[in-house]
Amino acid sequence: MYKIFINDKPFILCKPEEAATFSADLEVLMHPNPAMHMDWIRAIESAQHKGTCVICDEPAVLFESVKANFKTIQAAGGLVFNDHNQVLLIKRLGLWDLPKGKIDQGENKYESAIREVEEECGMKELSILHEYPCSFHTYKLQGHRFLKQTFWFKMHSSFNGKLVPQTEENITEVKWVNWDTLNPNSLDTYQSIREVLIAAKNAN
C-alpha cells in the first residue's frame, strides 16, 4: 500500500484486501486504467475533492508510474523525545509540524535528520533510536509538480537548553509537548504529519 498526500488529501494505492480500512468519504476506483492517473491527481488537487483510493493488483507498479509525473525530493526528520517523555513540535506557517528538511548532497538520511532537527530547533545531543515508515506528499512550485519522500526517525535527546526556532524556515515556535496526552486528531497540523504521529502512537 502507498499513500501520497496531495493538497493534504490522501491518494491511496492498495490491494483489494487493504481497502476496507479507509474512510467512506474517499472516491474509490476499482482496477482503473493506469493511463488516467494524471486525471486522478488533478481531481484531488481541486478544493472540493476529499481524496481517492485506487484499488489494484500491483500497487508498487502503479506507484512507480505515478511517480514519473513528479520530480522526487527526499527529506528526513524526527520525532524527538526527551527524558520526560515529551515530544518536540514546531510551528511552521501557523500549523504544528515536525522538524524535517531536504537531504543535502553527500548526506545520508540519518545525518540529514539530525542536522535538520538541530538547525530548526537550536538543539544538540540527538541520537536515533529507530526508523518509522516514510511519508509522501506533493506540492507545486513554479509550474512543476514535486513529490517529497520524508524519512522519519524516533530520536532521543537529553538537551535541556533554550529551544530556538529557525525563523528563516518560517518556524515561529518550538516546544516540548507531553507525549501521553498529545492527541494527533485534535492537533492543528497537516494530515500527513497527523498520520506520522498516529503511527508513532501505535508503535509505542
What does the model show?
The chain is an alpha/beta fold and about 200 residues long. The protein has 2 domains: about 1-65, no CATH class; about 70-204, Nucleoside Triphosphate Pyrophosphohydrolase (Alpha-Beta Complex), CATH 3.90.79.10. The protein is about 20% helix and about 40% strand. It is built from 4 helices and 11 strands; from the N terminus they run βββαβαββββαβββα. It has an 8-stranded mixed β-sheet with strand order 3-4-2-1-9-10-5-8, with helices on both faces. Strands 7-6-11 form a 3-stranded antiparallel β-sheet, with no helix packed on it. β9 (about 125-140) and β10 form a beta hairpin. The longest helix has 13 residues, at about 110-120. The two termini are about 20 Å apart.
Layout of secondary structure:
Elements lengths: L1 E5 L2 E6 L12 E4 L6 H9 L6 E4 L3 H9 L3 E11 L4 E7 L2 E3 L2 E3 L6 H13 L4 E16 L2 E14 L13 E8 L12 H13 L1
